[in-house]
Write a structure and sequence with these properties.
It is globular and about 75 Å long. Helices cover 46% and strands 13% of the residues. The protein has helices at residues 19-28, 38-49, 100-103, 115-124, 170-187, 203-215, 235-245, 258-269, 278-288, 301-305, 309-320, 325-338, 350-366, 378-385, 395-402, 408-434, 447-455, 469-475, 481-485, 495-498, 504-512, 521-533, 539-555, and strands at 8-16, 59-67, 72-77, 86-90, 93-97, 137-139, 144-149, 152-157, 195-198, 221-226, 248-253, 294-296, 439-441. The chain is built from 23 helices and 13 strands. The strands form three sheets. A five-stranded antiparallel β-sheet has the order 1-2-3-7-8, covered by helices on one side. The longest helix has 27 residues, at 408-434. Among the domains are: 8-157, Aminohydrolase, N-terminal nucleophile (Ntn) domain (Glutamine Phosphoribosylpyrophosphate, subunit 1, domain 1, 4-Layer Sandwich), CATH 3.60.20.10; 170-306 and 420-485, Rossmann fold, CATH 3.40.50.620. Helix 1 (19-28) packs across helix 2 (38-49). It is α/β, with parallel strands linked by helices and 557 residues long.
Length: 557
């Protein structure tokens, strides 16, 4: 979109939820608009305030503005990282895009693989911003701007959530949270196309849907995906939520071929991405789009309100570390490591939980900043690739360093919020939904709500063994009590069992038929053999290797 005089140009990806209020304010100052779009609002805000415009915007966005009068390019990404923005600088030239695939169409972009980024991918399942798989291509991090002009490129953070526990009244905070959540949902219901909601039957999605039902006169369309006869299945919970809220619910079975969608998934991410829940997310978005164009989700509740079991485990780790070193490393850990693993969902497997706990404890003892869980350990990645890992260049470690001084659990939560949430969860949902033309909106990630949550003391979120304490209290009376009382259940696909059955031949062919020299074949063979024997569940490690191999084949580095 161009300004009236043609001197300022905007390209924009996303949604501005408070555009109506902004329009009214601008019209009150004499501005005239030719359209009803939020794009024109953004352009006018820039003309009025330049970079300061970002303080007024509530939404998910990435955009670029060329200012001819000032001879500069202004790039921005939303506060939580819902929308992507990639860029490549070559001297006095800058290319940018919302997708890596299209950025590579610029013949100046060099496809030099970043070994550091590959190492980080194998640890975290994703490549943390500002890194990408290409050495000279960068992601603009969430809540950052980039200003490019004749003097060069300046990247800076424009927003940071609070880290000060200045809230003490629990009842008042709960009431404020309810009001903010209600307003956040209401803002995200403004649409001229059909809306619905993802409804897994967890606390977050059910609570968001309950507020949506309150604001909507007609029946709300809700959607979920299930894995019948597996430990990963949540269909009874989503059904219970739908019945309670009176929604028009569709539960899709996951009876489809991973082989059919695998190549498409890899292409849409544009770089290696190893979160296997992208597969059911793809299917859920594909089927949801047949009915609606916009869907609300409950993303963000775990990071904001302490929903992951690893936050509880962090407290136990502190106590476990008091056990003498010799007892831990010569008796407890070898004995647990000898126990065989099933391919059941980890939430229903005590042995898997115990092994995850011990691995996390060992990882954090070695490096107190290694708070985000990994699939491969750094030692395993070195065995697999032979690559040297530069710890001081790891963006996840750098983020964790920013929050030193906080209590151990909040330290972990804040690190998750700026890394795992932005570059895994939100990346997955954005790419899989956009692949089908479905827009997903996240009321729990309204920046006002994020700031409130981050100012709460930890006791408002976790008390004893209860996670999401304040969110459960807000949900009381709004959603079924069994859902309020249930524990966290991850959105996972039963890959472990499938790699031993219907996906065995397919996976084996791709695991050992790679056209690059980054992986040690003997180590890959060892992982595969241990998985097949039931010695360990290496499903996610195998999946990461498969995804990289497919990406390398497609992108021809």
């Amino acid at each position: 979109m161009l300004s009236q005089d043609g001197s300022t140009a905007l390209v924009f990806n996303g949604e501005i939820y408070n555009f109506r209020e902004l329009r009214e304010r601008l019209e009150g100052k004499g501005c005239e608009f030719k359209t009803r779009s939020d794009t024109e609002i953004l352009l006018q805000l820039y003309l009025e305030k330049q970079e300061a415009m970002l303080g007024e915007i509530n939404g998910m966005f990435s955009f670029a503005i060329w200012d001819e009068a000032r001879r500069r390019l202004f790039l921005a990404r939303d506060r939580l990282g819902k929308k992507p923005l990639y860029y490549f600088r070559h001297g006095s030239r800058l290319s940018f895009s919302s997708e890596l695939f299209s950025l590579l169409k610029d013949v100046m972009v060099m496809r030099n693989l970043s070994e550091q980024a590959l190492f980080e991918y194998l640890i975290y399942d994703f490549i943390p911003a500002p890194h990408t798989i290409f050495r000279d291509v960068y992601k603009l991090p969430a809540a950052h701007t980039a200003m490019f002009d004749e003097s060069g490129l300046i990247v800076r953070r424009y927003w940071q959530h609070s880290a000060t526990e200045n809230i003490r009244d629990y009842s008042e905070t709960k009431a404020n949270l309810e009001k903010l959540l209600e307003d956040s949902v209401r803002m995200r219901l403004v649409s001229d196309v059909p809306l619905g909601a993802f409804l897994s039957g967890g606390i977050d999605s059910t609570l968001v849907t309950s507020f949506m039902c309150k604001e909507t006169s007609s029946k709300v369309n809700t959607f979920s995906i299930s894995f019948p006869k597996t430990s990963h299945d949540e269909s009874r919970w989503s059904g219970m939520a739908a019945n309670f809220l009176g929604t028009d619910h569709r539960d899709f079975l996951s009876e489809y071929d991973v082989e059919e969608v695998f190549g498409k998934l890899v292409r849409h991410f544009g770089e290696p991405f190893g979160d296997s829940s992208a597969v059911p997310t793809w299917r859920l978005c594909q089927l949801t789009r047949q009915k609606v164009t916009v869907a609300l989700s409950g993303d963000g509740g775990d990071e904001l309100f302490g929903g992951y079991e690893r936050y509880l485990a962090r407290r136990f780790q502190l106590a476990y570390d008091l056990i003498p070193h010799a007892v831990r490393e010569r008796i407890i850990e070898p004995l647990v490591g000898f126990l065989p693993e099933t391919t059941d969902y980890y939430g229903t497997s005590f042995i898997k939980k115990l092994k995850l706990f011990l691995r996390a404890s060992s990882r954090i003892r070695r490096n107190s900043l290694a708070l985000v869980p990994g699939t491969f350990s750094a030692g395993e990645v070195s065995r697999l690739t032979g690559i040297d890992y530069r710890l001081e260049q790891d963006p996840v470690i750098m983020t964790a360093r920013e929050w030193l001084g906080l209590d151990p659990v909040t330290h972990m939560m804040f690190t998750d919020m700026q890394t795992y949430l932005a570059e895994d969860i939100l990346t997955k949902v954005d790419r899989m939904s956009m692949a089908h033309g479905l827009e997903v909106r996240c009321p729990l990630l309204d920046y006002r709500l994020v700031d409130l949550a981050c100012r709460m003391p930890l006791s408002f979120k976790i008390r004893g063994m209860t996670t999401k304490r304040i969110l459960r209290d807000v949900a009381d009376g709004r959603i079924p009590k069994p859902i309020i009382k249930r524990s966290k259940y991850g959105f996972q696909i039963p890959l472990g069992a499938r790699f031993k059955s219907n996906l065995k031949k397919w996976a084996e062919e791709r695991l050992f038929d790679f056209s690059h020299s980054f992986f040690q074949r003997d180590f890959v063979a060892e992982l595969w053999a241990e998985h097949q024997r039931g010695r360990a569940d290496h499903a996610h490690k195998i999946w990461l290797i498969l995804c990289f191999n497919e990406w390398y084949t497609q992108f021809g580095v």
